[in-house]
Amino acid sequence: MPDALTPCESGRAVRGLRAATAAALALALLAAAQLAGAAPPPAPAPASAGSEAAKPAPASAGTATDTRALDEQVQGLKKDVVDLNRDLFVLEEELLFPANTQVAVFLGVDVGNFFALDSVQLKIDNKEVLNYLYTPREVEALLKGGVQRLYLGNLKVGQHELVAFFSGKGPNDRPYKRGASIRFEKGIGAKYLELKINDRQRKLQPEFEIKDWE
User: Fold this and answer.
1) What domain count does the chain have?
2) Geometric angle at alpha carbon 141, from 164 and 110, rounded to 5°
3) Using CB atoms within 10 A of its CB, is residue 206 exposed (0-12), middle (13-18) or buried (19+)?
4) Residue 47, domain member (yes or no)
5) Domain of 108?
6) Do 205 and 125 have their domain in common?
7) Co-location of 123 and 106 in the same domain
8) Which of 20, 71, 163, 164 has the largest count of CB atoms under 10 Å?
9) What pLDDT is recorded for position 208?
10) How far is residue 163's CA from residue 89's CA, in Å, rounded to a whole number?
11) Range in 8-17, 37-46, 61-70 the model is least confident about
12) pLDDT value of residue 92
């Protein structure tokens, strides 16, 4: 029996399948589009001597029906491409990040008065795994209650430490950088952690914490 694929090999296989399938569907779309515009107009009948100039024949109902059918086929192929890419993305994540080793870090923000987020850096077991720079649109989405999946990776069972550094503008619009850390136990099954940024009204400054979703 052949050896099972590693997560890295499985991911490459899924990405290759995704690219090949998308290319095949793209060719089908192109062929359908070319076919839709390929039918030439009917040639006018030659005029006989002494007769009036031949009038162009009106478009047949069959041609209009064929064009609509081809258009529906093209739209159906486009939908198939979108659905296939979504399914392959889910499959790729399941292969690369199995539930028994998966660790995910989320970010939620409830600020606005004392801190404006610019970037987040993550370290797991003293190894940098993420350095994320935010756009104004992303920050706006977080302030409206959005929750971002900031990181997804694999960890073996045992004790681990997550350290997060938050950079941005603090009180009085000054550069502000703070950190938070948590030690957690990775068991069998997925582990979920949440970074939370809150306004602390009593001290007039932001508060940074990490929660373990038990």
Assistant:
1) 2
2) 55
3) buried
4) no
5) 102-213
6) yes
7) yes
8) 164
9) 92
10) 29
11) 37-46
12) 62
